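Hi L.,

You mentioned the student needs an example of a multi-chain input paired with its predicted structure. This one should do, with 965 residues in total across all chains.
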Amino acid sequence: MAAVTQDTAIRTGRITRTFIYLVLVLFALFYLLPLYVMVANSLKPLGEITGGNMMALPGTWTIEPWLAAWSTAQIGVEPTGLKPYFLNSILMVVPAVAISTVLGALNGYVLTKWRFPGDNILFGLMLFSCFIPFQIVLIPMATILGKMGLAGSIPGLVLVHVVYGIGFTTLYYRNYYAAFPTELVRAAMIDGAGFFRIFWRILLPVSGPITVVSVIWQFTNIWNDFLFGASFGGQSQPMTVALNNLVQSSTGVKEYNVHFAGAILAALPTLLVYVVAGRYFVRGLMAGSVKG
Amino acid sequence: MSTDAMSTQVTDTDLRTRLQDWIPKLVLSPSVAMMVVFVYGFILYTVYLSFSGSRMLPSYDLIGLANYTRLWGLSAWWTAVINLAIFASLYIAICTAIGLTLAILLDQKIRGEGMLRPIYLYPMALSFIVTGTAWKWFLDPGIGLENTMHLWGWESFEFGWIKDRNMAIYTIVIAAVWQTSGFVMAMFLAGLRGIDNEILKAAQIDGASNWNLYRRIVIPLLRPAFLSAFVILAHLAVKSYDLVIALTGGGPGRATELPATFMYSYTFTRNQMGTGAASAVIMLMTIAAIMMPYLYAELKEKK
Amino acid sequence: MGFLDISNVTKTYGNVEVLHRVDISVQEGEFLVLVGPSGCGKSTLLNMIAGLEGITSGDISINGRVVNGVHPSKRNIAMVFQSYALYPNMTVAQNMTFGLEMHGVPKPERDKALADVAKLLQIENLLDRKPGQLSGGQRQRVAMGRALVRDPDVFLFDEPLSNLDAKLRVDMRTEIKRLHENLKTTIVYVTHDQIEAMTLSTRIAVMYQGYVQQLGTPKEIYDKPANVYVATFMGSPAMNVVKAKVAMREGAPHALVTGHDGTDHALRFSQDNLAEWDGREILLGIRPEAITDPDGADRNSNNIVPITNRIEVIEPSGADTFVTMKLGGRDVIARMRADADVATGRDFTFAVNMEKAVAFDPATELRIQP
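Structure written out for the whole complex:
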């Protein structure tokens, strides 16, 4: 029998282990390849792409495509670059994430610590609303946003993302607070703290981990959304819609390097968040939404 | 008698306690109101429209099941439905297979797990538009993989699925698997880490080989993770829209239309709102059929 | 009128009545223990006193004021929870003064109260720590400190010792008893541990299936259990309850019980009114310590009856030796001195102290009153 570590329950031989590493590394390459291609080609002059190998590193390094994608590329009919759309996305994401997280936290608090008859049914309805295909609400949403004067505006998009985001944030906070001892809430009640005071002083200080999850989830989802942005963005289109317009534009020469730079720009905020806090996110997600 | 007791109780209750009784419901009410209007109200509205003769604008003349009859008579809808069936089954099966394999392999006390895991997972942070953009060019025969292989000397290599009516749907599967399989891996890994090590030790003492250990003990214990993965993947598949738009735009021709893209184009560009609404209702029913039993079980269990 | 009055209180969830017409009146300075198995309604009753659960019907009043609809924080009560319920994000000092802060007590007063209680409980050195850094016993002290700081009318304890290990539990029990004796506070204490109930209380309410089975001093509960349930719940090992037949011998009522070999033993009752039961079946209750070896029998008793029966099992526990034999077809445990001369399988003469025996009506399981 091959050398075996003491604490592992499953034992594998040397040849098996080599094979395992091989498979794992191959998959790592599979996941990394598209990113590598994007980054490498975004730093090449266009000629090197159309005439050369997409796997090759740039012969001439240039950041021109990035500058073009950011400020001069043709988006739709205007040569504005992605900059204004990036700003739109930020203006949409920040309030939408903040509002949906705050509402989710309060909802989770009520649904676990101030239970009332029928609360489970309400929660079930909220939960189901996370999973509906949004096509089912597109038509009435377009009508209502128009009637409210919010069509094609940032506040309109914020409203849409809050509405369809609170299901998830409520789910996260509910599951998190469900594990929080109810006796603590009772102790605080006897101590004389009211609804908001208990939330503020007792629950919120220990809600860090789930808030990270909720914020990252909402940030990623809203930043990456395309359907609502394309349907209701109007004059205030977010980054994803602009990127798609850039890439799909049928006029002129296809500037692949600019497209790649634009794609990375669009992915950068979520990738950054993922790199910084991804570990907490996955951990919280496992505990929160799906019990493995 | 009992109502009497109740009424004295109410008068005894001080103002603060009564207020405290209402605050939680008040706090919940904006969310509930939004949900009732924007989710369930809108669903009902769309269902109504699906029975109406709406074209470019909503109209309220009921025409019975005509939209549904027309919908199932459209070859474009059938294409979308068949595409969804192909896409969803392959997407779910391959993601599950890759996710499970990677999770089991990563669970063998792998050195460098901390480095590999984020590599498998990062595509999840990208939008489908970015994924679509990346894979669109990667799969493009002119500049992508095929071209690269030719430049590397493999002249006969051909990979033009994205331009092929019959094969283009599979490129969507590839890109979607690339985006989500790492996430499925994380779900299975969490499941594996939750299995009691003593059970595995007991099985080994019973003489189970590694193969049997996984086949007979571990994989059956991962049932909840399989279920969660299935539900999440299935609902993502039905909702898939962005990826198709970015990768193929529904083409070549209409070869990669899915119900989500069908609904959008019929409703907003072809002015067939009634038919579009009917297709949205069918999408919702598909998802409800998948989610309802799952949610019901989840909520009941947590009670 | 007591200091804390529970009158005619019931509790229903949906159609299920979980507490049936509870009547308990607690005097100021009393230590009332609610004891019973899980699901007997004791915690529900405590939560109703605290205001954490509503009252379906009846009244609860504290210090002369009906508090039925009053918010928990306005009842002037403090509660020590089973899990201690210390706020994890606050220091010990913040935990203890949170209630005072919520009630608008000025800081100097809060600090004074905190210092006094910390001194009393000897936790001054822990005040800056977070609950996560404390041991189980220390958390327990802090939880009590939080209650004491409030100086409430009534203290409520919800199984406060059940999360401690055996040794610490005994120490904390003594501590709580000492606190009560020094401070003369009114306490309602919930536990499932009958030893805690006996040692701590001035009065005990034994609860079972939503009914108060018996309310009385520990001695009353132990010596004069109201029914078979109370008799067997209180005491460890439990009271032996065996079938017996009443027969008159020499003008006095005797209990006839069958020994291991089928022969009847006659045990004379000290209770004369059992003459009315002549010829009828009863349930005879004898505590293990009332069945001993002859040398260990109670010298003050006027009614020690010797019976010879076979020893089946011997369990030495150090201080005592428990001996099992068969009476009336049931296992009966006797409590011997540690050095009693016993051996398994041998016939042995047991001394039964019939002054301590009780009789129950087999139909109602109620004790037959003398």
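You could point out the following to them. Chain C touches chain B at residues 54-58, 66, 68-71, 74 (CB under 8 Å). Residues 240-360 of chain C form a domain with the OB fold (Dihydrolipoamide Acetyltransferase, E2P) fold (CATH 2.40.50.140).

Best wishes,
N.
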